[in-house]
Each structure stands twice: as structure tokens, then as C-alpha cells.
Amino acid sequence: MGKNIFITGSAGFIGSHTVKRAISDGHMVVGIDNLEETYDSKIKRMRIQELSGLKNFEFVLGEIGDKKLVASIIKNNDINCVINLAAKAGVRTSISQPLKYYQTNLLGTLNILNALSSNPEIKLIQASTSSVYGRSYKKFVESDTNLKPISPYAASKKAAEELCYVYNSLYGNKMTIFRFFTVYGPMGRPDMSIFRFIKWISENDTVRINGDGMQERDFTYVEDVARGILAAVNSDWDYEIINLGSDQPHSINTVIELIEKQLGKKANRQHLDPDPADVPFTQASTDKAHQLLDWLVTTNLHDGIEKTCVWYKKNRDWVSTLDLQVEKFSKQ
Question: pTM value?
Fold first, then answer.
């Protein structure tokens, strides 16, 4: 039976794909987004334009920090489940804008939790990040309590996890926290590495790499992530933290090589100084996701990059106008 779902951050990368998955699964969706410009908002507007034609989807332009608006959406639409994907994303930008990250990622989440506290029957699915694990060379397991975030972004998301646990204990709303691992795919974020590499290589521009390119990431295809999120809508546990990753880390250099093959071009590589906000390695333990959700990735990195390159080629004219907002870290 379909649910009435409130998806925040619905114009975002993961949010827009989650809306499409929810609609295809038979749910009714109300989405909210403020279209803010952590990265070029043209792509957010394009996502909303694409979603606007979907049946059983309503979009609201607004802030998750607007208490009256959030409460009215939940009440007027008989919401069963909130999927909170609204966030200030990006490790590097958070270093220069920590207050903005805490305002959205922590205080915005607090506002949603307050709205749900008088509705204990409403479930919350909360987005978190692999960045909460900090620096490690071993597989990231949800039961690990020795977490050491190394950026304001990661710290704000870890704080939101703790806040969710507090509200679950106080008010009884069932909650699932998903830690996402380097999500990529069509309609992606232009500030993320795979999007940038495809655009740079396609346009014969210099491919800027922080460090030697040997750092490894657990790249996870966006449609797999959306499927995992929706798998938790009918869950019945009290509170769980679950990794959504591929469990297959690949180096940045490997990613560039795969893109080169898809585009039939060689990258003009420029190696920059390592970024102190970067972690050297990420790898998700997916045992819990498999056990609780019967979830594993179905799209490997080769196929995911192929699909992303095909999307880029079809949309090259307008995608080429996007601002990649390249920043080089500097201590202030």
C-alpha cells in the first residue's frame, strides 16, 4: 500500500532520484527545496522541471527551517514518512562556511524532529554520510563508536544523527539513518569528482586532482541509493544506522581511466597538493543493509560511469554551462 511521503531536498541529486523511485513504487510525494546555491542551482531547477510532470508529486519551494510550513505540509497531507535529504553538502565548502552547515544540517533537522515529536506514528528516514567515520584504512562498520569527523560538514551530520537518537528515545518515532558513500550518476552534483572529470575530459580541459589520485572511494550509483532509501519506508525497527555503499572502493585514477574509455579521450591531468579535508579511503560494510533491507548494489562502477557519460552526452549543451565551483583549499 502506498504511503504519503514528505521528501526534503527534493531538487537535490539524491532527493530527485528518490522522488522518482517513490512515485514508481506507488507512493504520493510532497517535496520541498529552497534551491540554494551550494552548487549551481540551474541543475536543481532542471531536476524540478523533470519531476513536475510526475503524477502524485507536489513541489513546495521553501525552507526546512520554516516551522509553520513544515508542520502544515505534514498535517495537510497526512504524511506517514519523512525522508530528510535536505542538507548543505560538500566537505570543502563547509570549512569556509561552518555556520551555514550547522544551520541547515543540524537546526533544520531539529525543526523536522520537533514537528514529528507530536506525531510519533510518523517515521523518519534521515540522510547522513560516510564522512562521519573520518580517516580510516579499514572497512566502515555501523557499530564502530570511535568516529572522528574531520570537517564541519561531517561533524554537523554526526550531530544530527545524535539528535535523531535523542528524539527517538523521547518521542518514539521510528527512525532509519542512512550513511551514504560517494554517490554519483546522471543529474549529479557538479561539485563532485565524477561529474567534474566527465565535463573536463569531454571539453579537453585540465583535470585537476588533489594529491596523487591513489585515494580510494566507495562510489555508489544513485539509483541503488534511492532503492535502498525506499526499502526502509515499510521497516518496523525502532532506530537503526545503515551504510549504503558498494563495498568496492576504487581509486580516483581508476575512475578517470574508466571515463577516458567511455569518452574516447585522454585526460590532461594536473596533480595539486592533497586536500587536508580529504580522507584516504572509504569502504562500506554492507552486511547490515543486506540483512535488514535485502539490499546490495546492482550497478558496478564501470556500468554506472557508462550511464553517467551517456547522460552527459545527451545533455551536453546545457550541462556545459554549469559552474563547477572549483575551490582550492587554503588555511585562513
Answer: 0.93
